[in-house]
Every structure is written in structure tokens, then in C-alpha cells.
Amino acid sequence: QVQLVESGGGLVQAGGSLRVSCAASGKSFSIYTMGWYRQAPGKQRELVAAITNGGSTNYADSVKGRFTISRDNAKNTVYLQMNSLKPEDTAVYYCNAKQVFTLNMYWGQGTQVTVSS
User: Fold this and answer.
1) Whole-angstrom distance, CA of residue 85 vs CA of residue 101
2) Is the pLDDT of residue 61 over 80?
3) Contact by Cβ (8 Å): 101, 27
4) Could you tell me where the DSSP H helices lie in the chain?
5) How far is 6 from 103, CA to CA, in rounded Å?
6) Is the pLDDT of residue 111 over 90?
7) In this model, does residue 27 exceed pLDDT 80?
8) β-sheet bridge partners, residue 10
9) Dihedral, CA atoms, 64, 59, 116, 79, nearest 10 degrees?
């Protein structure tokens, strides 16, 4: 099992940048695919970006070219660098870990990102 704690959310103006981090505790961080999801008020939670234990990444079309997901297995941490932020990026951002063998999924508590126009 893994516990996830997000940090780094906040308020930023449109066009600005923000980096959110997710620290994982527990064993074998490297066997988890890590992802960032977001949920805006009144909307369903959606996948923003994911990175496999091998470093392969995928992104939602809405964030391609603006957001970058990365991981540091030595620090058990995954990052989401968000550039050129837009008001529509405003949401609670959740860290997710999916174990590659069992497909069990774990969630962080979420961190608020607010982009003002």
C-alpha cells in the first residue's frame, strides 16, 4: 500500500506557472504508474497526465505542450509542472498511484489550484 501527499497548489494568474508535488510513502514506489487527475466544481474527475515506472508519459489534450509530469524514484515523488495556466485549469488536483501488477489504485487528498483571469 502507498500513501500520497500532495503539495504546491495555490493561486496564480493566467499565463503563470505552478508546480505541484506528490510524495509517496510505502514500499516499491517504482512499481506504480503515477498520475495527476483534476476535478473542477460540477465536473467529473479527469486524467491530466500519467507516467509509468519506465518514464513513458501521456497527457490530456487540453494540457499537452503546457504541462509536464515527471518522477524521481529516489525521492518517491512525482511532479506536475504547469505552465501557461488558464482559468479553465482551476480544479482540485489529485495524485494517483496505480500498482502495475494488481492495478490497485490509491489517491492523495488533493490540492487546490486556482487560476485567475
Assistant:
1) 35
2) yes
3) no
4) none
5) 21
6) yes
7) no
8) 113
9) -110
